[in-house]
Design a protein that fits this description.
The complex is a heterodimer. Chain A is α/β, with parallel strands linked by helices. Chain A has helices at about 5-10, 30-70, 90-95, 100-110, 115-125, 155-170, 185, 200-210, 220-225, 240-250, 275-280, 360-365, 385-390, 400-405, 410-415; strands at about 75, 80, 130-135, 135-140, 145, 175-180, 215, 265-275, 290-295, 300-305, 335-340, 350-355, 370-375, 395-400. Helix content of chain A is about 35%, strand content about 15%. In chain A, β4 (about 135-140) and β5 form a beta hairpin. Chain B has helices spanning about 5-20, 30-40, 50-70, 75-110, 125-140, 150-155, 160, 170-180, 185-215, 225-255, 275-280, 285-295, 305-320, 325-345, 355-375, 380-390, 395-415, 420-430, 435-455. In chain B, α13 packs antiparallel against α14. Chain B is globular, with a radius of gyration of 24 Å. By secondary structure, chain B is mostly helical. Chain B is built from 19 helices and no strands. The chains are: A alpha/beta, B mainly alpha. At the A-B interface, α2, β2, α4, α5 and α11 of A face α1, α9, α17, α18 and α19 of B.
């Protein structure tokens, strides 16, 4: 293999040895020593090349073979989505290029150890100082947070006008609203230093000042006062049962409820909750605990989701705890409309327009109303006025988190007369 | 399909390599051609027919040109040459510049022609330049061209260089098509080059890209000087690692198949003048323009005013080649003026300045140029430049956040943009055993991190329960 004097490879040494091809007439010890050393070094360099090549070929063949040999996964819990399956050939998929794209996706999504590679990459990027991953802020104490969303001004004004008009149409109702700030606006001391974010609390105040005939319930001061405590999940974009309770106790008087008098039995129902932000960021080094709070009360109730004949005597859905979206333990996730009928005997019926933040809030509300009608306008297509015509509603509450509400376009549709 | 895709590294490449190693030498060119056409068709299969037509047309034109040249029919050969080059330019123009031309026409005449949004054929800008150089080289008698249509097709479509160069004149590759035996030494050197290129792209360019895209998303009017510079610097390094990484991968891949392609980058950010920068940045493109535009126009052996015109023509075209848009045109003019300044006005003055100062000055001038390159409109570029020169405050807390986040990638990038690493690697490799082993570990670590980085590019979570 070593033939260092073949003309092709002799080229680089031309500078040092003007006539390498010429046969040496006499032995010249000094120069020979130098030549031998140079030859040895060249051999070492070539040996390194051969080893690098062998390593490279072995590495790509092994990884490719292992990936092919391992069974394909249908679903990735870490990413919370279905994964690409073996590309199916068809003439049309070949012609429109999707066949080739499928191969690209298939190779990546069924690669051996995909989740571990993602973890390795995140570790590398954090080592290089990354403070965000896929749009999620990597905060202190294992917190993952979403940056506050910029309000969609047009949609927000539409929602505000619709709420004001709704309140004006129904002066007999007591209408309240709470917009819950997200973790990044409350747990500010856990954020990466100097991270430039929108002032969500200011956005909320600005919105609240435009409401007319609606009682705005500001939960921010109470949450800020407890910002050292676990108000939000570390790996999910929701608030915890504890956070909801703090907010409930702060706004209960304004809702005409003596909420502080109630005691609760709290139970940890899951200790291995990995929420949406873990999936979005790819950061899987923290697990959350989900707690439920059961009021110490004699009030009984049943709950019914629209279109589902089942009457359930619980606010919790055990089955969700073994699934991927464990936050759905509260009310089984988002239904278009859920009715809760109780034995409270207060003569009050609450119409609650909500997003998923309210799902863990209801456990605090139910002892104080004969009936609670939950409507999630994102999935509900009938009109609110229709509900009012059929039910004897006394109170209306809008309960949203800021990130959803500021970009929501569905509430104004449901509120339209 | 890009070299930085998992499918390329772990699907396409190993299959091609295995087939290549197993195929007898006389069929290896056919195999490489098939691989290259598949590579071209990946993503936009509808252009395969277009490519085959372009190949047939230019092959025939090349044969015809060689015959006319040898029989001394100058006028006719000139006509054939002009027609074929125009046809190739038309190809480039239709796919790359039609939108820009129509936009300009619409803006000037208030018309509203709608341009069709077509996907670009893979490597269009590169293979059309290869075709033009092929014809020009035949006309000038530097080569007889290829008698074998398969060899000619492989020259144009050879997949390591198809998508992003380097642009190699045919005479430089002619002998290699006849003789490119597989050897483990060459293969290893190629693999090393490929791994280094891949690392540049995935570990450095993509990381710097995260910083750049976060910064460039902020409205340019609100930038402070620190921000604007951070943005421009991260772009300068990102672009260098992206493109030089891609070129390294191309050279490395060609090496694995026994071919030797010229290097495309030579530590350009250490240049002492803008003219030198262009001899060290995208070397083969600069060489192409010098060889097939500047010198045919008369080069430097004409009246200074003609030199000025020639240089400006070259850099206008260089600007337009990089992208169909006003910002690229301005970027080309900017570099053209700098080169003119160096060649015609500052001749002799530059040499009196210490090298270190020249390197820093050239780097800053180049970075300012990149602002035109990455801005969407000329207005945005000028806003950014004004902010870089302190028209919007010096720094703020947000700048500190991004600066801190970008610090390590920038430092790592700056270190990797210097030749010390490569020199150290070569020096150590020469020392033998333990270092050989260590270098294998080093490359293994790079490959590991690259796979992780490539995987993350495809990471996306489906948030069905988003609120």
């Amino acid at each position: 293999m070593e033939q260092p004097n073949r003309p092709r490879r002799a080229a680089p040494s031309v500078r040092n040895a003007p006539a390498p091809a010429a046969p040496r007439p006499q032995p010249r010890p000094v120069r020979d020593a130098r030549e031998t050393r140079k030859q040895a070094r060249l051999r070492a360099l070539q040996r390194q090349s051969v080893w690098t090549g062998a390593f490279f070929l072995a590495a790509i063949l092994t990884l490719a073979a292992v990936s092919l040999a391992l069974p394909d996964r249908d679903f990735s819990p870490a990413e919370n989505r279905r994964l690409k399956q073996f590309p199916v050939f068809s003439v049309s998929s070949l012609l429109n290029g999707s066949y080739f794209n499928d191969w690209n996706s298939y190779a990546a999504e069924q690669f051996a150890g995909r989740d571990r590679w993602i973890t390795l990459d995140l570790a590398f990027r954090r080592l290089l100082g990354a403070k965000e991953a896929n749009g999620v802020l990597l905060c202190r104490d294992g917190y993952l947070m979403e940056p506050p969303a910029a309000p969609d001004t047009a949609a927000l004004e539409k929602s505000r006008d619709a709420i004001n008009a709704f309140a004006a149409r129904h002066p007999e109702l007591s209408v309240s609203m709470a917009v819950v700030p997200n973790a990044a606006a409350i747990l500010t001391d856990r954020l990466p230093e100097n991270v430039p974010l929108r002032d969500q609390l200011a956005d909320i105040s600005a919105f609240a000042s435009g409401l007319e005939g609606v009682q705005f319930l500001d939960v921010s001061p109470a949450l800020l006062a407890h910002s050292g405590e676990p108000l939000y999940y570390k790996t999910d974009h929701h608030w915890t049962t504890y956070g909801a309770r703090i907010a409930f106790e702060a706004i209960a008087p304004a809702l005409g409820i003596d909420g502080a008098a109630m005691g609760y039995d709290t139970y940890a129902v899951s200790a291995d909750f990995e929420g949406t932000l873990a999936a979005k960021s790819g950061c899987h080094d923290t697990l959350d605990v989900i707690e439920i709070a059961v009021p110490r009360t004699d009030v009984l109730f049943y709950r019914a989701d629209e279109g589902d004949p089942a009457r359930l005597a619980t606010l919790y859905d055990d089955a969700s705890l073994s699934g991927n979206d464990k936050y759905a333990v509260f009310l089984g996730g988002n239904a278009p409309r859920t009715d809760i009928t109780t034995t409270a005997g207060t003569g009050r019926t609450l119409l609650l327009f909500k997003d998923s933040y309210a799902n863990c809030f209801v456990q605090f509300l139910y002892p104080y109303f004969d009936r609670i009608i939950l409507i999630d306008p994102r999935y509900y297509y009938a009109s609110a006025d229709d509900v009012l015509r059929r039910e004897s509603v006394t109170d209306v509450l809008f309960l949203y988190n800021a990130n959803t509400f500021f970009t929501d376009r569905s509430l104004s549709e449901v509120l339209a007369p | 399909m890009a070299f930085g895709d998992l499918f390329f590294v772990f699907g396409f490449l190993p299959v091609c390599l295995l087939l290549y190693i197993l195929t007898p030498g006389r069929f290896s060119n056919v195999l490489l051609l098939l691989c290259s056409l598949l590579f071209f068709a990946w993503g936009t299969p509808e252009y395969l027919v277009l490519m085959l037509c372009a190949l047939a047309f230019n092959y025939a034109a090349g044969r015809e040109l060689a015959a006319l040249r040898d029989s001394g029919k100058k006028v006719l050969s000139g006509a054939v040459f002009a027609t074929s080059v125009l046809a190739d330019l038309a190809l480039l123009g239709y796919w790359k510049y039609a939108g820009f031309v129509l936009e300009t026409v619409n803006a000037v005449f208030g018309t509203s022609f709608a341009a069709r949004e077509l996907p670009l054929p893979v490597g269009l800008s590169f293979f059309t330049f290869s075709l033009i150089s092929y014809l020009a080289d035949i006309r000038r008698g530097r080569t007889d061209g290829s008698k074998d249509p398969l060899t000619f097709s492989l020259y144009v479509t050879f997949f390591p260089k198809l998508a992003s160069g380097p642009i190699v004149p045919y005479p430089e590759m002619e002998a290699q098509f006849a003789h490119h035996p597989f050897s483990w030494r060459r293969f290893g050197a190629g693999a090393r080059c490929f791994l280094i290129g891949l690392s540049k792209k995935i570990l450095l360019a993509n990381t710097l890209g995260t910083t750049f895209y976060a910064l460039s998303a902020l409205p340019p009017e609100s930038l402070t000087a620190a921000f604007a510079w951070l943005c421009a610097l991260s772009y300068a390094l990102m672009l260098y690692f992206d493109f030089s990484g891609y070129s390294d991968m191309a050279v490395g891949l060609a090496g694995m198949f026994g071919f030797q392609l010229p290097k495309n980058f030579d530590y350009p950010y250490l240049s002492r003048s803008v003219s030198e920068f262009w001899r060290r940045w995208h070397i083969t493109l600069g060489a192409w323009f010098r060889e097939y535009v500047y010198i045919p126009l008369g080069g430097s052996r004409v009246h200074p005013f003609r030199i000025f015109l020639n240089l400006m023509a070259v850099w206008l075209l260089t600007g337009l080649w990089h992208g169909a848009g006003l910002t690229f045109l301005l970027w080309g003019i900017y570099h053209g003026l700098l080169v003119v300044l160096e060649k015609l006005v500052l001749k002799g003055v530059l040499e009196t300045i210490p090298n270190a100062v020249r390197v820093v000055l050239t780097f800053l001038l180049v970075v300012i140029g990149w602002v035109f390159f990455f801005s969407a409109t000329p207005a945005e570029a000028f806003t950014r430049l004004s902010r870089m020169f302190f028209l919007g405050g010096v720094a703020d807390g947000a700048a500190a956040y991004y600066a801190l986040g970008a610090l390590r990638p920038l430092l790592l990038g700056a270190a990797a943009a210097l030749p010390v690493g490569a020199r150290l690697g070569r020096e150590l490799a020469r020392r033998g055993q333990p270092w050989t082993l260590l270098s294998i570990f080093y490359f293994a670590a790079l490959l590991l991190l690259c796979v992780a980085g490539m995987m993350n590019d495809t990471y996306s979570s489906f948030l069905y329960a988003q609120f």
